[in-house]
Amino acid sequence: MKLTANDVAEIMRLVESSAFDALDLEMDGVKLSLRRGGLQAPMDTAQPATPLVAAAASVPAPRAIDKKPSQPVAVDGAEAVRAPLLGTFYRAPKPGAPPYVAVGDTVDAETVIGIIEVMKLMNPVRAGVSGTVAAITAVDSQLVEFDEPLMFVKPAP
Amino acid sequence: MSIRRVLIANRGEIAVRIIRTCQALGIETVLAVSTADRESLPARMADRAVCIGPARPGDSYLRVDTIVHAAQAVGADAIHPGYGFLSERMALAERCEEHGIIFIGPTAAQIDAVGDKLKARAAAEAADVPVVPGGPVASLDEALALAQRIQPPFLVKAVGGGGGRGMKRVDRIDELEEALSMASAEAGAAFGDSRVYLERFVERGRHVEVQVLGDGAGRVIHLGERDCSVQRRYQKLIEETPAPGLSADFRTRLHAAAVRFAERLSYRGAGTVEFLVDVDRDEFYFLEMNARIQVEHPITEAVTGIDLVAEQIAIASGEGLRLTQESVTFDGCAMECRVNAEDPNRDFQPSPGVVSSVSWPSAPSIRVDTHIDAGARVPPFYDSLLAKVIVHAPTRSDVVMRLRHALLETVLSGVSTNIGFHVDVLTDAEFIAGGVDTGFLARFLAREPAIKESGQHG
Lengths: 157, 458
Prior knowledge:
The complex is a heterodimer.
Chain A: H1 5-17, E1 22-27, E2 30-35, E3 79-82, E4 87-90, E5 106-107, E6 112-118, E7 121-126, E8 131-136, E9 142-144, E10 149-155
Antiparallel strand pairs in A: 1-2, 3-10, 4-6, 4-9, 5-8, 6-7, 8-10
Chain B: E1 5-8, H1 12-25, E2 28-34, H2 41-45, E3 48-53, H3 64-73, E4 78-80, H4 90-99, E5 102-103, H5 108-115, H6 117-126, E6 134-137, H7 140-150, E7 154-158, E8 168-170, H8 176-191, E9 196-200, E10 205-215, E11 220-232, E12 235-241, H9 248-264, E13 268-278, E14 283-290, H10 297-304, H11 308-316, E15 333-340, E16 342-343, E17 349-350, E18 353-354, E19 357-359, E20 366-370, E21 377-378, E22 385-393, H12 396-409, E23 411-413, H13 419-427, H14 429-433, H15 440-447
Parallel strand pairs in B: 1-2, 1-4, 2-3, 4-5
Antiparallel strand pairs in B: 6-9, 7-8, 7-9, 10-11, 10-13, 11-12, 12-15, 13-14, 15-22, 16-17, 18-21, 19-23, 20-22
Helix pairs in contact in B: 3-4, 4-5, 12-13
């Protein structure tokens, strides 16, 4: 079976209207990777086994090493919710689902604000403080280090 | 597969050591650090440091899943475990094998084969490598029968132990029963494995080990031996190569035994086969194999000119063994003193703190492997090794003299160190004569009841 340009356009429309941010499809030596809000790439199905969207190539050259991940270390009057362990941070229970919390949400100490995955083991992260989410600094699906601020919560008065 | 980026799962001087070779080879380094080591010298030297957990090793450096996850997340092709921590945990090597990460070390199966004293002993016997007379004992009757055969004094050891823990000396057969039950209980509590074995205690023994490199396909070479007999409670303090006073024939047999043992395992990477040299009987017995880079590896590098970490990386990346036995040559003597943050006047208690100032010696014959610069923290959570001062010279007497001067030149303040203690040992007639046994340091301490203000040397 061959993927035509029309097929790809249709798949893109489906992804666009779905709750998913990404799609990876592999079939008959064709690999299709779509990322919402990613780089726009030409649609061309003529090259089998090569990623259609360059930005989502599955075997990239190693990323340049960020020596110091840039992120705010403090938000005025807010308390940091820090990563209790190193792992991959997820803002939502599953891809496409609404995030646990968003800026402006009220949380208490027990509110789950995200998940940190370590080798397929999911660890819920709780706010540990009552208040309003002021900023979210951790990026979904990215590595967070131990003790790294995930978000900032303005404590309730 | 070539290695482009390495995650280093260690800290301290060995992290610095590994980073230096990686830099020379053009390999990127990511250092896994605990919160206590975020500002350390290796953390600053590495291309990136990732914080893996709190200071306590059990929550950071000993977490296999966290290390493997970090390696994958930063795009590392390989993990270098250094020594200690996870370096000889089969679980890490296994996880790496499962996830397509290169483990810079032996295979999980080889770690398993040498990690259990009984299995290692059986492998030695199978390789026709002599072992200390003795064996595992499951009951008191078994122990008594064996004791009659090998005669006292004995050593009772934990099967799963290491570093001297769970070992007991027994001088008389009628003391055996109590020692066995104590050793078994202690071993069970410390290692979760209460199996013990009984062996002949060698009254005057020297600790001599042989450095080997294996390609993982059955070819093994040796890089000579190291004498590590200057030990306090089984912790090595001074190491040297070659081992003084051994005949050429004895050394040849020792090297050949180490190579035979590693060949039998088709050992991959750098490893060390440890022997107990029985001075009175002029024999040697296999003790164990360390499946990692050793703390004292620089003295071997000094006399052979071989970068052992570079060879580890070459073997791990599939280049195999780049050296032949004939190409390995030995030049002169080398000796290493382990400078620890500990107070010899207070029974060598660890002395954590902040190093306010430090000046290491420098000369062509001197090498200092350290992670300590001014302002460096010495956290209480880890071993107290600050630096290794290594001297290489044509003769042993040159080495001892220059090492003494190198230590006297060292100035370090903020924490207590054993530098002065090392100077005293290097001035001792018995040590200068060479070839001391493992009981030397205890005798030395007994005859120098008041170790001079050793911390004051630096």
